Amino acid sequence: MRSSIVAPRLSLTQKIVQTKIIGKALIALVALAVLYLLAVNAIKNPTVFLQQLVNGLQLGFVYALIALGYTMVYGIVRLINFAHGDVFMVGAFISFYAISRFQLHDWVAKLSPGMSPFVARAIGSITVILLSMTLCALLAFVIERVAYKPLRDAPRISALITAIGVSFFLEYFGALKFVFSPNFTPYKRPFDVVTWTLGRQGFGKLVEGEGVPEGNIIFSNIFVIIVLTSIFLLLLLQYIVTKTRVGKAMRATAYDKPTARLMGINIDSIISITFGIGAAWAGAAGMLYATAFPQVFFWMGIIPGLKAFVAAVLGGIGSIPGAFVGALIMGQAETLSAGYISTPMRDAIAFSILIIVLLIRPTGIFGEPSREKA
Amino acid sequence: MKSRIVVSVVLLFAIALAACTPAAATGPIKIAHLAPLSGPVPTFGASTRDGGLLAMEEWNAKGGVLGRKLEAIVEDSQCTPDPAVNAANKVIDQDKVHYIVGETCSKASIPVSEIAQEKGVVMISPTSTNPTVTLKADGTAKDYVFRACFIDPFQGAVMAKFAMGKGYKTAFIMLDQGNDYVRGLAEAFEKAWTEMGGQVVGKETYTSQDTDFSAILTKVADSKAEVLWLPDYYNIVNLVAAQAKEKGVTAVLMGGDGWDSSDLDLKAADGGYFSNHYSPEDTRPIVQEWVKKYQAKYGSVPDALATLAYDATNILIAAIEKAGADDPAKVKDAIASGTFEAVSGTIKFDQYHNPIKSAAVLQVKDGKVSFIESVAP
Lengths: 374, 377
Fold this sequence. Notes:
The complex is a heterodimer. By secondary structure, chain A is mainly α. Chain A has one domain: Orthogonal Bundle (ABC transporter involved in vitamin B12 uptake, BtuC), CATH 1.10.3470. Chain A is built from 14 helices and five strands. The longest helix of chain A has 32 residues, at 46-77. By secondary structure, chain B is α/β, with parallel strands linked by helices. Chain B folds into two domains: 28-150 and 284-357, Response regulator (Rossmann fold, 3-Layer(aba) Sandwich), CATH 3.40.50; 153-276, Rossmann fold (3-Layer(aba) Sandwich), CATH 3.40.50.2300. In chain B, the strands form three sheets. A seven-stranded mixed beta sheet of chain B has the order 7-6-8-9-10-14-15, sandwiched between helices. In chain B, strands 2-1-3-4-5 form a five-stranded parallel beta sheet. Chain B is elongated, with a radius of gyration of 23 Å. Mean pLDDT of chain B is 89; it is low at 20-24. The interface between A and B is large, with 44 and 31 residues.
């Protein structure tokens, strides 16, 4: 008889329920099984495994660009902008018309034929992506002014439903024959695809029509461009949000709107800029996505938009590095499940990861516990 | 007073009927064309109508059939069940036709085939590929209903034979599990391919919303398959073909008539083969003659729809001639037992009233689609 204060004795079942041990054990078991499966396959055929990782990386970086816009708008305006995926679609179509109709990717080569074709094409492609970003940003300004601003003080659900409405509007407006097209349209890439091989023998170029040399992994110039652009835009966004005056104003707005206004911050223009930047990033993603998967279609934004949203939630919505990490996880989960488990199940598997992570960390990997707002 | 009017109306009808009935026995033989001239696919309707009417014109120029002229009755069936049923009832009950060429779309042909079967009217659909068009619920054929096109899975068998003939031994199959058309072609290919001694080195499914095929294509490249069987529509083919080149896939892409679209990415799909009902480049004399005739009359190259409608109408009229009487019951037997020389191939009907005939194999090469050969099953 040691103590007088007896802790209430827990029965075994109560203990199990309280510590959620069964759930955790199940998750751990599933995770172990998946890791085992991957390890077995990685040992069996390391080249294919590495190749699948590269494939997943490319997908993940594209998702990251879309997820950045989602997470930034949510972090500052607290609105899940469901029209984001459709702005992405508009971005893809803008680059499609710029390239196919106006040959914008070729303007440098036309003006100064003496320039090296590589530099000329690079500048041309950058022009196209900048055009996509700018027009998407303008579109987002308009959407924000017309659809979201009047609802800023309305309950959050109203803004959410409006966002879904805007999303449908963009899709079906884009499907009209005189706007974009109701059909699947092949996308003309602004540059030719070059595929490189990488193996023990070193670095090489894949000859078209020939197979991959034994033990080599391959990656294309599109992969390199997507990775570099994504990292650049991520760093740029991080810089804007943390180091500039506008970024400081954004963070102040996110923290406390009325006080920010009292401090002389123009809330309206800050929110517009936030939407604009998010949309510009989606426009860039639209062009890169269409370059990687060369086809444009008025519904092309739905699935990537949804997956990028999941990636943002997975990483902790509102957190910029979180969106990035979440997107990379989504990309790997999808490719590895398509590669080693089952292709039709890959979305189910990717979304299960979301559920599991949210069960363990409800705010996402990088998410902060929701703070009390003044 | 009232009863007198009724009596006279009845009398009038009786006279009209009396005048009509003998005229039908010696007058022209009527053939109805149910074509979707409006609705979602009006170009399909125009093509099938033009092809069918041209066949009738030719027979009339030769003096008709059984010493009687042919008369066409064209109705707009809109590729939609209700208007198609109304049109079928109208031509059968009001115009008293015994023969129908149509409908173009399977979903409209299915209800029309029920009516044709019930009322004993011979029907040949030029282009409806759904198996149930010619089948009763118990799986046997509707005696009065035929089609002039092969059904979807047939192309799988034809392409397996073609690939085998090219000397390929290993195939990788990609299919969208949620699409009946794709699944049918994939299963038929796999069955024919393995029966002929080919090896299936991999089989992967995807969904119609997928755009990233890199994971599957990495497996295809790793499997070193010689043929990648991809019997989907052009939009998926465009995406897969473009990514296949970047993933070092050396397999030859092959598919079915889902590839047949002006939106097929010819650059990405370069080197691929697909089957189709017919090709205007086919060198057989019957094809070249048909293309010339059609061009002279309508000023354009006939598409597969016009060709199949032409074939369907010709089979019907040839069967009437063979039966020797304007009697649908005899004509249906003549179709079921006969062999017909048609533009899209020599046609015989199997027990399910689907034609057994050759398919055209086309290749995507240097920015255009060209005819390679005609492959018999």
